[in-house]
UniProtKB/TrEMBL annotation:
Belongs to the short-chain dehydrogenases/reductases (SDR) family. It comes from the Bacteria. Transmembrane segments: none annotated. It comes from Candidatus Litorirhabdus singularis. Gene3D superfamilies: NAD(P)-binding Rossmann-like Domain. It holds the Pfam family adh_short_C2. Keywords: Oxidoreductase. This is SDR family oxidoreductase.
Length: 253
């Protein structure tokens, strides 16, 4: 990824921060895009990335970011579509405003990112192309009862990723698109639940056959592979980083 221009949304904390730090360490020219101004600027300054304020739900923000990338970098090689939120509301609790906001960030924002990246990557010289990596979840496969909007959005990421991948391939655009699927990972999204009920930590660790939670660095390593030329024959795929959580049948004993 040396000198590859890489845009990472939701990079101010958690898995996104792990991606920013890893890609910077690998020599990429990283743009950290986030709505969290203070956190994003701190992370960017600490590892040599550029911070850019972005509301992923805003078409005008994406258009402005595309113009910035063209003028300041001249190309985009990789997009890590990572911004996301949770609601912690079940189907009987969720209100329409919460549902719409979560889907706007987790799914519509990701779609806008794909649109923007495809346009920019098509302009790359001498050879058009690039890689899009969408952050989904282990809940893309296995539902949890307490957050219907989040589960729905992360299942939707799979469909979005596949559609983008096959469109780009059949149109000869040389843009790959894959999704990564983290399991339980200690991040800012999970932290409120851990603070409220620290006794759930052993339960979270038991979710994986490896008997531990993952780390942001481990998820970032998978994203790095998919963004790189080493993954040149990978597109439309789902890549789990969840310690085998979705592979194990519930035990009888």
């Amino acid at each position: 990824m040396q000198d590859k221009v890489t845009l990472i949304t939701g990079g101010a904390s958690g898995i996104g921060e792990g991606m920013v730090r890893r890609f910077c360490a690998e020599g990429a020219r990283v743009i950290l895009a986030d709505i969290n101004e203070a956190g994003g600027r701190d992370v960017a300054a600490s590892c040599g990335a550029e911070f850019y304020h972005l509301d992923v739900t805003s078409e005008s923000d994406w258009a402005a970011l595309a113009a910035h990338v063209r003028s300041e970098y001249g190309r985009l090689d990789a997009l890590l579509n990572n911004a996301g939120i949770v609601s912690s509301q079940s189907i009987v609790d969720v209100d329409v405003a919460t549902w719409n906001r979560l889907l706007a960030i987790n799914l519509t924002g990701m779609m806008l990112g794909c649109q923007t990246a495809i346009a920019l990557m098509g302009e790359n010289k001498p050879t058009a192309g690039g890689s899009i990596v969408n952050t989904a979840s282990s809940t893309s496969y296995l539902a949890i009862p307490g957050d219907v909007a989040y589960v729905t959005s992360k299942a939707g990421v799979v469909g979005l990723t596949k559609s983008v991948a096959v469109f780009c391939a059949t149109e000869g655009l040389n843009v790959r698109c894959n999704s990564i699927h983290p399991g339980a990972t200690p991040t800012a999204i999970l932290q409120p639940a851990l603070d409220a009920a620290p006794e759930i930590v052993p339960n979270l660790e038991r979710m994986s056959p490896l008997k531990r939670m993952g780390s942001a660095a481990e998820v970032a390593a998978m994203a790095l592979f998919l963004a790189s030329d080493e993954a040149s024959y990978c597109t439309g795929g789902q890549f789990p980083v969840e310690g085998g959580t979705v592979s194990e049948h519930p035990r009888m004993f």
